């Protein structure tokens, strides 16, 4: 221990770190100068990473809370979700207005997608594949799948059957149709060449779809049914009303279905719940009604006209199969 009156010894000046460094002693060195080179090299990256993680955590928490609110909202209104009265009620319009406001805020957030069209794919594809590879780890393995039978052949609505019960029986098929239609027309999936699970497990496709839909990997697994045993199966052929598919997109708690609808049909789902068109389940196709003149005469009777068109499409297809002796759908009217 140094005695109280003993003069304090000066520390020797530190040698420069390199031949080009300026020689400074502790006395004339500014506070923090000893680490200023290290801080300059690491602080920006560290700060940026921390800020990015904090932003992701906040977005994840916000997304979780919004999802819980949506689920609560749809559970509250579930008994009347399929009625025309509910579809024109202030409740659904207020909900959709809030959802559009959320979309607007999300779009104002700086993003690096889609890439600059002038930028060659080789410049951004590796990063997207790496991103998709990381996300692909969340795809459930075969042992953790939930048993689910493939959607049955599309059935006609029985006379007097309520629309709610009819949609309840077919809703899984409708959601699979929306997902498959998106894959076919927005990602150029060709079922004949690539299997559904193979396509959805591709790292580049995962990254591209997640970026395009601005969704999480949990959303990806949900909307494409990757947690079920029938995830690699196709829908049975059949026709269905376009407006019922729009209603299914509208009443699902996950807004990604409505986002997909806007991307593939260029309209809001709420604006399609009375559109007189016909959908074919597989291959996913949108077809016009066969009697547009009758629709003009019977305004407000679009449901009847749509079902008449569905029966006629089925009759024509059955005749084509019988005349050709096979179930090969080579008629250009049904091509997609």
Automatic annotation (TrEMBL):
Residues 1-13 have a biased composition (Basic residues). Residues 1-68 are annotated as: Disordered. Residues 47-68 have a biased composition (Basic and acidic residues). This is Uncharacterized protein.
């Amino acid at each position: 221990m140094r005695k109280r009156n003993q003069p304090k010894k000066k520390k020797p000046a530190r040698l420069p770190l390199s031949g080009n460094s300026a020689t400074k002693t502790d006395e004339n060195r500014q506070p923090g100068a000893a680490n200023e080179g290290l801080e300059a090299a690491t602080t920006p990256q560290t700060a940026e990473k921390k800020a990015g993680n904090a932003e992701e955590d906040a977005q994840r928490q916000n997304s979780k809370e919004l999802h819980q609110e949506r689920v609560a909202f749809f559970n509250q209104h579930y008994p009347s979700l399929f009625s025309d009265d509910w579809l024109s009620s202030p409740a659904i319009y207020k909900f959709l207005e809030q959802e559009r406001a959320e979309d607007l805020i999300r779009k104002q957030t700086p993003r690096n997608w889609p890439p600059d069209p002038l930028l060659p794919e080789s410049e951004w594809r590796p990063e997207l594949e790496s991103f998709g590879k990381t996300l692909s780890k969340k795809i459930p393995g075969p042992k953790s799948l939930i048993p689910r039978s493939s959607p049955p052949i599309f059935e006609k609505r029985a006379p007097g059957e309520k629309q709610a019960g009819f949609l309840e029986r077919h809703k899984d098929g409708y959601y699979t149709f929306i997902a498959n239609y998106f894959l076919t027309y927005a990602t150029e999936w060709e079922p004949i060449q690539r299997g559904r699970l193979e396509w959805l497990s591709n790292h580049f496709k995962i990254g591209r779809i997640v970026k395009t839909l601005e969704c999480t990997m949990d959303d990806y697994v949900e909307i494409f049914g990757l947690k079920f045993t029938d995830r690699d199966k196709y829908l049975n052929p059949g026709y269905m009303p376009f407006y019922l598919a729009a209603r299914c997109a509208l009443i699902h708690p996950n807004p990604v279905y409505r986002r997909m609808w806007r991307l593939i049909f260029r309209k809001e789902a709420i604006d399609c719940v009375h559109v007189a068109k016909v959908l074919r389940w597989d291959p996913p196709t949108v077809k016009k009604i066969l009697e547009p003149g009758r629709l003009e005469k019977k305004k407000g009777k679009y449901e009847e006209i749509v079902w008449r068109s569905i029966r006629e499409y089925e009759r024509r297809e059955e005749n084509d199969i019988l005349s050709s002796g096979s179930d090969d759908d080579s008629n250009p009217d049904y091509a997609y």
